[in-house]
Amino acid sequence: MFKFSSNFLHFLVLGLVVITQSAFAQQTIPLNDLSAFTNKSGNWKIVGNASADISRENVLTTTPGKGVLACIHEKGKYGAEYELISNLKHGDLDIELDFMLSKGSNSGIYLQGNYEVQLFDSWGKKSAKYNDCGGIYERWNDAKPEGEKGYEGYAPRFNVAKAPGLWQNIKISYQAPRFDSNGKKISNAVFLSIVLNGTIIHENVEVSGPTRGSLTAEDVAMGPLRFQGDHGSLAIKNIVINNFDKKPGTLSDLNYKTYYGSLMETDDLSKLTPAETGKAETLTWEVLKENNNFSLVYTGKYNAPTAGDYNFRLQAAGNSYLKIDGKLVITPAWNENYREGKVNLKAGDHTVEIFNNKRDGWLKPALGLLVSGPGFREVTYNTKSSAMAGNATDPILIAAATNTVTRSFMDFKKDESSKKQRVVHAVSVGSPANLHYTYDLDKGTILQVWRGEFLDATPMWHDRGDGSSRPRGSVTVLGDDMLLGKSSGQSKWVTDTTGSGYRPKGYVLDDSDVPTFQYLAFGSPVTDYISVVNNQYFERIIKVINPVKDLVARVADGSSIEKVSDGLYAINGKSYYIQLADKNVKPEIRSANGQQELLIPVSNGEVKYAILF
User: Fold this and answer.
1) Beta strand segments in 160-233, E
2) Element holding 458 (H helix, E strand)
3) Nearest C-alpha neighbor of 37 from the set 2, 81, 5
4) Could you read off the pLDDT of 410-419 as tens digits, one per residue?
């Protein structure tokens, strides 16, 4: 979002980080100093950590150190001197980073200095526009009539923006415009995908020209990365880029041999006479005279333009393998879907052998090969008609136009290092505010919360089904341990219901179909009510009748718990907040097994707090 005169628009500069060497593969950008950037005003600096006040406009505080890029900027001061420009110039590029916005803040990432992906405090908005977080900003033409100057602009599919002060993640895959040998543009820039907080919000969005506030008026083949720094305060960390600045490998000198009959994949074809032999410009199964009971062998030459790791993906109906320089890169196996293998190649030519044996008449023939490597995106080496999309299934989706309760299995992982478990008595509750959660009836706990659409029930209802459903949005994982426990003499939280006398009693719905969960624990009846507040967050009220002595509620656990202000705690590296309704409550932050826990006493029979994410 911009507030400046048309004369100033020409000079506006936004910024981003830079690599000082050629990027053959994905690289993390070290944020140890600002030597890779140009910034005239000094509003950008390297810090150790950042925090934003969720209740105060544009307040971002930092601590000394390295690893975080922070912009501290007073709103209302606009100008190119506040922007950050990389020394790097790029064409095709993938970039991933974590960012934190102060309340009401506004920034943007400009690819090639010209095409903006918006960063904006959009927390709590039910729907999003092009100028909300993750939106592709509009183009601008001062010559058009009022109300028509802004055009194009693409809103994210869903608003999955987190609260101010929380770390958010964005991944952008960008394809630069193409030009012919005379410098004439022959294709537009394309945002191949944008993923915000784990949710795909854009796919294959073509941009006809530079968006508003661009560095240049026309498209360019190469340009810098930029961060906007004159519309509010923000922080950035964990920047990873893949700069696709190298030519892709080539596949040539393709020769094929075909064999027919009831052949096994293990048969020695060198002892047989091929039915046909020939040359091909591109890989295809369509050289075959029959669609089944065949073996097909391709040999050829793959030229690797740059030394490094190459990833090969092969699809073939039936049994197949791939050899490079006589060595198996993709081992023999029966699988109709894409399989992949990685190999380190020296620059130069390498021999390729692709084998496909098919004996299943019900299976459609297919042969496809895709390769990605140092400095280039994945390239297809087969005809379009040769590969098949796979066994796609029309999705079975559950919306939540009204408050909606759905029972299913739910697969759950607390973190990447944890083993996946299947929660068999899960209840997912959806709301028209696009805020949803899953509750485990066996433990009286909230497993996860998410923003976006409600559920994908395809695994549960397609064909015979497996009984499970999947969240359709940006998921924040909470945990699968009992909420209530006893604090005395306990160094480790009890992760199951042993010793608590836990007994589920189901749930009841109010007039708006919002459930109140009921159970027995430690000899006391318990009610658990979760509701949406202001389209922004969940409020949870647990009531315990005649609570036993030393009863506490563990309302959060994670790798870190930071007290942000009275009653407000940031959980798990600022992944989400817990906000206590009663600031007079004295919670305990306890360390156990390398984790931290936030414990609240249940002495008065009630626990009330909010989950802000």
Assistant:
1) 168-175, 178-179, 185-187, 189-196, 199-207, 223-227
2) helix 458-461
3) 81
4) 999 988 888 8
Domains 6-244 and 250-380 share a fold: yes
Count of other CB atoms within 10 angstroms of residue 324:
19
What pTM was computed for the model? 0.87
Per-residue 3-state assignment (H helix, E strand, C coil) for 21-67: CCCCCCEECCCCCCCCEECCCCCEEEEEEEEECCCCECCEEEEEEEE
Region of 79 (left: φ > 0; alpha: ψ -120 to 50; beta: rest) is left
What's the Cα-to-Cα distance from 1 to each of 124, 153, 198, 545, rounded to whole Å?
18, 12, 24, 51
Measured on CA atoms in the order 110, 38, 105, 167, is the torsion positive or negative? Answer: positive
Question: Quick one: residue 82, left, alpha or beta (phi over 0 = left, psi -120 to 50 = alpha)?
Answer: alpha
Give the CA dihedral 228, 233, 235, 240, nearest 10 degrees: -10
6-244 folds as: Jelly Rolls (2.60.120)
Q: Which residue has the tokens 């030459």?
A: 301
Condensed to tens digits (0 to 9), the pLDDT of residues 395-449 reads 999 999 999 999 999 999 988 888 899 999 999 999 999 999 999 999 999 999 9
Q: Is 455 helix (H, G, I), strand (E, B) or coil?
A: strand
pLDDT tens by residue, 248-272: 999 999 999 999 999 999 999 999 9
Residues with Cβ < 8 Å from 463, sequence gap 6 or more? Answer: none
Question: Do 460 and 469 touch, CB atoms closer than 8 A?
Answer: yes
Distance CA 568, CA 579 (A): 4
Compute φ and ψ for 375, nearest 5 degrees. 80, 10
pLDDT tens sequence across 47-56: 999 999 999 9
Q: What is the pLDDT of residues 302-334, one digit of tens each?
A: 999 999 999 999 999 999 999 999 999 999 999
222-226-230-232 Cα dihedral, nearest 10 degrees: 150
Measure the CA–CA gap between 231 and 214, rounded to whole angstroms.
Answer: 15
Residue scoring higher pLDDT (464 or 289)? 289
Fold of 250-380: Jelly Rolls (2.60.120)
Three-class DSSP labels, 464-486: CCCCECEEEEEEEECCCCCCEEE
Q: Tell me 7's DSSP state.
A: H
Residue 191: both structure tokens together:
């945002």
Cα–Cα dist 201/233, whole Å: 24
Close Cβ partners of 16 (under 8 Å, ≥ 6 residues apart): 84, 85, 86, 95, 109, 110, 224, 225, 226, 227, 239
* Boundaries of every domain in the chain: 6-244, 250-380, 397-612
d(CA 456, CA 469): 6
Whole-number pLDDT of residue 499: 80
By residue count, the chain amounts to 613
How large a percentage of the chain has pLDDT more than 70? 94
Q: Which residues contact 195 (CB under 8 A, 6 or more apart)?
A: 169, 170, 171, 201
